[in-house]
Specification:
The chain is of the alpha+beta class. 35% of the residues lie in helices and 24% in strands. Helix 2 packs parallel to helix 3. The two termini are 18 Å apart.
């Protein structure tokens, strides 16, 4: 079984298609599979999903970080989503025949190369973190780009690799983590304070749902609860959706729609469908496509 990792880098550009295209082209080093990419103008952010052998993926990521650093000026960047750099965060995810610990070591290798060769400050997070207070992405990103410009010289904010100074490309956060589902729910209102309050009630750090991280944002004039679901086995997607719906209805508002950013494991979708359809045995083996695949050998 070939060793396969996934990477889901987030770039602080969602309004200039030509720059997004350059980043997407750069990331496709030989052996890298481009699985998905999407951009959001309000967040001013693009998310790219790639997979492949570790060496190929790391090379593609390095090329993409270099391209973003050359094309994005964080002193001019504005967007709804928190960020610290042109390449904001680069998570590595184990897929086949590799452990999370091995991905963490790959993240450290990539982080060191970015710091040494591109001269960018690099912070390690999640499984690759060198300090316990840097495991959680929101903690590393605290203060965002503008705050880090002022504090990077302090011992508490010293980068793991690269210089302790911020240029136009900002900093890069690199790490390793299990599969994460990026999921947003739009409310049928422009009341961003309601979105922020719902986010506060559901996120784990405020005593809400386990393995849920959430922010309330205003996106294209609509209130959005923006989330990272870091363990859908602990808190399934449909549980999150139901709880947001309950809190919204209690405030006299309904859910307008929801969206996925990037890709999602098929089990998450089947589990949600099984929940709402009351079909506990629903899974890939009950689909025509899977039955044809098995019949063809």
């Amino acid at each position: 079984m070939p060793v396969t990792i996934e990477a889901v880098p987030n770039f602080s550009e969602g309004r200039r298609p030509e720059i997004v295209a350059a980043i997407v082209e750069a990331i496709q080093a030989p052996g890298v599979l481009l699985l998905n990419y999407s951009s959001d103008a309000d967040h001013n952010r693009s998310v790219v999903t790639v997979a492949g052998p570790p060496e190929a993926v790391l090379e593609g990521l390095f090329r993409a970080v270099s391209t973003a650093a050359a094309r994005i000026d964080m002193f001019q960047h504005r967007g709804a989503h928190p960020r610290v750099g042109a390449t904001d965060v680069v998570p590595l995810v184990p897929i086949e025949a590799i452990s999370l610990e091995a991905c963490a070591e790959l993240a450290r290798q990539l982080g060191q190369r970015i710091g040494d060769e591109l001269g960018l400050p690099v912070y390690l997070y999640e499984a690759a973190a060198t300090r316990p207070e840097r495991r959680r992405l929101p903690d590393v990103r605290k203060g965002e780009f503008e705050g880090l410009v002022e504090s990077i010289h302090t011992p508490e904010r010293a980068p793991d690799f690269g210089p302790a100074r911020m240029g136009p490309a900002g900093a890069v956060i690199v790490g390793a983590r299990p599969f994460l589902v990026a999921y947003n729910v739009y409310l049928a209102t422009a009341d961003v304070q309601l979105a922020k309050e719902i986010a506060r009630q559901i996120r784990e750090s405020s005593g809400g749902l386990p393995a849920v991280r959430a922010l309330g944002l205003l996106v294209d004039g609509q209130a959005q609860v923006s989330m990272n679901l870091v363990d859908t086995g602990t808190t399934p997607l449909h549980v999150v959706y139901d709880e947001i719906g309950r809190l919204a209805v209690a405030a006299g508002v309904s859910i307008d729609r929801s969206e996925l950013i990037g890709l999602v494991p098929q089990d998450v979708v089947y589990n949600a469908a099984a929940h709402y359809l009351r079909l506990p045995e629903l899974g890939p083996d009950r689909t025509v496509e899977e039955a044809i695949r098995r019949a063809q050998g």
